Amino acid sequence: MAATPSNAQAISVSPPGSAAAPDAAPSRISWQARLRRWRRTRAAGLVGVAALAAIVLLAIVGPLLIPFDPIKPNPSVITQPPSATHWMGTDQYGRDIFARVAAAGRLDLTVAISVTALALTIGSLIGGVAGYMGGIVDDVAMRFIDVLLAFPAFILALGITAMLGNEARNVVIAVAIAYMPYFVRIVRGEMLSLREAEYAAAAKCVGNPRPRIMGYHLLPNALPPAFVQATLTLGWGILDVAGLSFLGVGIKPPTAEWGVIIGDGAQYINSGQWWISVFPGLAILITVLGFNLAGDWVRESVLRR
Amino acid sequence: MTDYPAANAPLLDVTNLQHTFQTGAGRVFAVNGVSFRIDAGEAVGLVGESGSGKSTVAKCLVRLLEPSGGSMRFRGADITHMNERSFRPLRSQIQMVFQDPTMSLNPRLTVRQTLSEPLRLHKTATNGNLEARLHDLMGLVNLDRRLLGRQPHQLSGGQKQRVGIARAIATNPAFVVLDEPTASLDMSIRIQIISLLRRLQDELGMTYLFISHDLSTVRHLCNRVIVMYLGQVVEEGPVEEIFTNPKHPYTQALLSAVPIPDPARRGQRRRIVLPGETPHLTAPIVGCPLADRCPYVMPACRQGTIPFFDIEPGGHRAACLLYAEDRDAVAIDGSAESARVSRSEASGRTGSD
Amino acid sequence: MMQETLPQLNPTPGAGHSDANAAAEPLVRIEGLTIGFPDETGERFVPVVEDAGFVVHRNEILGLVGESGSGKTQTSMAILGLTRRPGKVMAGHVIVDGVDVVGLDEAGLRRVRGRKAAMIFQSPRTSLNPLMTVGDQVARVYVRQRGMNRRAARAEALAMLRRVGIAGAERVAGSYPHQLSGGMAQRVMIGMMVACGPDLLIADEPTTGLDVTIQAQIFELIQQVQAEARMSVLLITHDLGVVAETCHRVAVMQGGRVVEIAPVEELFARPRHPYTVRLLGAMLRPDRPSGDTQEPDPLPERLDIEVGGRRYEAVSVDAWAAAGVGLPMTIEVAPGHFVLCHEREDGADAAETER
Hints:
B: Rossmann fold; 2 domains; 11 helices; about 30% helix; globular; C: Rossmann fold; about 25% strand
């Protein structure tokens, strides 16, 4: 009986669990491609976050940088092109566009966040209860949601605002109702599978009352996909609020709102006064893009879990 | 059914328990008239293969499922159809350890949150001594108290199941249902969990119902065994009796199929192979559930309900006509072909499990 | 590299069951196999199998034992070139009947898979095509692997289903996988793989989720087809009872390494590696009364081994990092019994002082 040392490869001495340097092989390419994709997503996500940061900065700091009021007309400087004084020019009432776009940023971001928070909260509650209770509760809730989903979200929001009257609060409610069904469906679907989870049975055996099992044990586990949906809703919410306002059924005109400002400038764009509509348009573009890119990033990291 | 006086009542008395449920393919008869008693301090193994209904019995006992018939009494109190609100105080006394700790622990909760819950819900601990009680529990299941802040994904499989056990014993229950608690664990962890359960029973005086298809763990944890097949109890008795002197043909086949980790004994054992596979029941069984697969089947086996026959004084009994005191009488009685066995088409060999 | 792969130690017969064939080159020879998976950053590869080696002789059943994460499944997948991305074989050779599978292209692998080595998995029902009848799936093997016409293939398929113990083979041949029970589906899988006529059948925990009575039948079937077809079986399992009843030799894996190989009686009677000792000590024996099942004492992490006057120590793989051990080596402690161990620093000295 003899003994021979194992091949003196560097690899063979390292204990398991330690990392060994990779060497070149075909299988590595696909892995690196995946890695690159993830890094791209992350890079895009960072771009999205940067875009959002810029818009938030504009909304918060912008009004402090200039002496102009976003609402009060100034007949002496009607439809001036961008200049050192009026960075984005003025509109047909002589209001500074930069002041209006910045002020609108505050409003639009607030509205988008409110819309999403409202839709997420109500949608998750309805979806959670429907999915957990099942039976008649689920049937009633889902038929109601089916009715809402039969309309395109924007048309639904338009109808509800027309019904409630066009104040900022009502616009928020209308757009939130339009987006709520998506949250209901997502959370209900999660809840349907979670309710069969063994830890739900364990929670019952420990002596939890049903509302606590639903609210404390299951709902938090059903929410991550809803958060992904929320990042998308932030973007869509801004588009819809601006769209409603542009059509005249959203935020009322003197108020600084991106859709309102675009509407103000719409009739001037053919006569060369492009700046009234283009700057708020750019603000919307950057914001929505920012939400979507950051949202993809969030989704990627949620799915990777 | 008998009303036992509360004083000498068994801890748990299950009589003619039934559970059926509806599926797309028809009604499934999961548990068909199961009766057994468990006295305080026992560790009873409930063994059987898939389709035996053992897990269904367990879920009925902790009221995760509603029995379709029969009765369950805990300390003399009828809990068969008790509503959740009235049953909730009893949950501190009747607890369950689940099969897969990865599935049965809430992934978002820390060990501390998971273990505090039963203590708070049943007011076993006050805010003042909660932390001390948590440390006690962690000590009982041999876990480092520093793990209290961890979430399940930060624990190993064995550690997770220790948390599952700690959760079940948190309220000092009298009765714990263990639903295959070692099935998802590696061998070396399995023996640790089994010896932990034995020690906890000694120290805390709990009564166990241990559901398992793994007969070696049953032999090492239990003092009595109940064998189920197709929703019925076919044999029960003290653990050594069942393992060394099995009487029901099903128990014999089951035990002979367990691999023995001893190469020296290879080829020395006679393996009893039952033809076919466990069928799915879509109708209640008349007669013995094993009749279609049993090598000793007699006409009488397909009639009525097979009674239990005492094998040994210690409570070893089997529901098999081979052990009837007067087999001739049975045979004559069995010639009257009044009742026919009604079994599903799936009892054939293409039956899906 | 395992000692037993060195020429002077070959041939190593199996467990006395082997015929003259055993003297030939082993069917499968695995040498220094290292399989890595990328860590979270994707920049470094973490080995899940490291410097593993063993041989599978012709006409034997070799058990590959280990707990979850020991690398036993990855090792067996490498024999068929089935290492899944992003994992990859980083070093070593897997020689199946003279062909090195490592680095072989798809066309080459196709010639190995089926004809030389076939595999059955844990979940037979998901390994079968849900849209084809069982009979057609088995028949297709004969058409593809043996070039038979459809009619002959169908007849062969029926014969194969009967051979793997399926009663009512005609009826079963016409059914779809979801209509089969787990045990039946595994029988069909075995039939399909045997139909390929492989020299090696790899069975990866083939009875997971099956009842104990069905499990016994499946292992009996595997033993039966192995003996009939005179092929080799690599049986991956964590159940030492199954190993004791089914296998001729056993390889024990821990932490990606093969720590001990021996004929089955030898391994159960005289385990030398601390991990094997621990595994055997952790068995709950169904054939013994419980006695006092105490929580087992922590077993020693290292055991001394003396061979030919030299001292070695076998160290549990999970203790290597802490123990600061040197190069691992494989020594033969008894005929056909190999243990992964380390030369003791004081090994030679101790031997001398004793003299």
